[in-house]
Each structure stands twice: as C-alpha cells, then as structure tokens.
Amino acid sequence: MNLCFRLLPAAVALAVSAAAGAAPLDALLTANHFQRAGAGEVELAYDTLNSSLDFLGLREKDSAATTSAVGDYKGGHVRAGIAATPRLWIDGAYWKRNIDYRSFDAKLDSWQVAGQYKFLDADGRRPAMALRLGGWGNNADSLTKYTNTTVAGTKFTSATVNKPRDKQLQLDLIGTWTPSTETALSVFGGVGQSRVEFDSVSATSRTSNGCNYNVAFSPAGVEATLASPCTAKVVIDRFTQAAGATVDVYKEARYKSTFAQLGVTGEWHSGNWRARLGYQYQSIKRDDVDDIIENRGGTAYKHSHVLVTDVSYNIYKNVVLFARGQLMSNQFNGEVPLAYNSLTAEKYDQKYGFISTGLSLVF
What angle do CA 341, 290, 70 make, to 5 degrees? Predict the structure, then answer.
C-alpha cells in the first residue's frame, strides 16, 4: 500500500511539469485594425531564448531539483488577420513550442482564433471601441520524464501524461485613443473560461527492494503490476489503491477555471518605424486545485503579469521586419494552462520570457 501513496504524487509532479489563461500577445490588443474590407496581414516569426540571449537571467540554472524549471525555449509561429468588413476583423494564429525543462522536453502546439467588431468610432476624446470574442488552446501528444528520481523513498524511473490539453473561450472590450497621428493608447478588459484535460497518466517505478512496476492511474484509483521478474524475498505481482489516497490525479490536474484580465498598450509610429509597449494583468480562479494547494500549506499562483514590447521597420513596400520581447512574472501561467496542478504550482513563482524575430506581410 505504501507504494501507491508514494507513486500518485510522484507521477503527477514529475510528468506534468510543463507550464500553466490569457491568449498569447493579448498585451498588444487594439480596437483599430485595417478599415478597408479585404485588407490584412500575415506574421511569420521565430521564437527563442537561450544562454546567449538571456541577458536578464530568466533561465533556471541546471539543478537536479528543478523538475519544473524552464531552460531554453525555441519554436515559431504564424499569425494572420483580415478585415472581413471595415468594422469586422478576423484573425488566427498557430505556435510550435519546444520548451526545455531540464529533465525532459515539452513539445507543444498552440492555436488561437478570434473575431473583433468595432462598434464605435473615435470622436474627439471618445475612444474607438471594439468587442473581441476568441478561442485558444494548447496541446501535446504526451509529456514524459525519463530520468531517475527518488520521491518519498520510491525510485521513480519515468512518468507520462498522455494528450494533455487546454481550451479557453474569452471575451474582451477594447478602447483606443489616438492623441496624435503618430500615437495611440489602448486599454482593455476581459473575462474567460478555461478547461484543462488529459487522457491518462502512467508511470514506472522501482521499489526499495529493486522490483519494477508499471503503474496506471484512473478515476477509480491506482493499479500497479510487476513489470519484470524480481528476485526480492517478498514480491507482490499486482496491487490497487482506491482513488483519493494522498492525491487525486483526476481532480487536481483536470479542472475548470475562470479568469479576468486588464491591460494597457501604447503605440508610436513615424515614417517606417513603429514601437509598441503593452502590459497585461490577469486573475485566475481555478476549481478545487488552488484550494487543495493552500490547504496543504502551499502557494497557489492566481495572478500573472505580462509585459510585451516590439519594434518594427518597413523595409520594402508591404514587408515589415520586427523584433519582440515577452516577459512573464510566473513562467507561462496564464498562457499555457495545461500543466498547472497541485504538484507543479510551486515552480510558478519564477519569471520567464523569450524573444521573437520575424516579418509581416501587409496586403
């Protein structure tokens, strides 16, 4: 029985330790897009952070204890938008993310679709106003940790979460002022709902007497079977444990949440140059999981701050080069919810960020 009590928290903590919602780049929201039907843009970018670019010291140093710490980040994304009418803007995006968590790599796909309707034009001190409705999410085929780790006296050799994913629905109200022909100021606020799910959790473990077990988790509980012949004096071929022992995987890593956000964006442009700076604050209320964390004496991370800045230059007709930086107060909390749970939350007090470089094609 003791093996079950040790394996359940170990499997979740070591396998689902990626990152945990506001949609990507919400800090740059604006009510104003192209006013001509059929006008639009396509953005292609490379996203990265490594030792050469980490001048702020955001990457965690190598450590056997940093099972949820973020190291290098690399990936890319494509974003596209079009003015369906002078007032209706439709956009979408797709990201490929490869995040190094020291003990394993997380390969994530992220997506976003949204429609934005400008229902009020700017007039004097009155801002342009728009409503934005969008859906977005993240998913991975699996998250697996292969390196050996000892947890509560049990040697844990691997753990896998199959098809972790999250989906969000979000509504924002955006107001944009244009104090001059070269500047714009936007404020926004929004609310949304989130759902985090996975298909299954499995693990392999080695007991103190050297026996290897395959462990499967279900809503009913835990089942462990002997993985290979064992020469120990006392060998149990198979055992089970009812749900609710120490940690309930299907309650603490699969959950719903609601969130609210506020933010402000400033923009300046002159000639071929444009610069933007955006700040976003988010508050998250998760069902069950944060209460469980706090009841155990831990810290639940219910808030996040994001700062995004970019500079772009129009190099030729409708071709624009840009560089963008994103800084987050609590790793990817609020942008990639799929792996926040009762046993990975402790790592979300760490800052993180990355840099994007690319080009936009305007038509």
Answer: 40
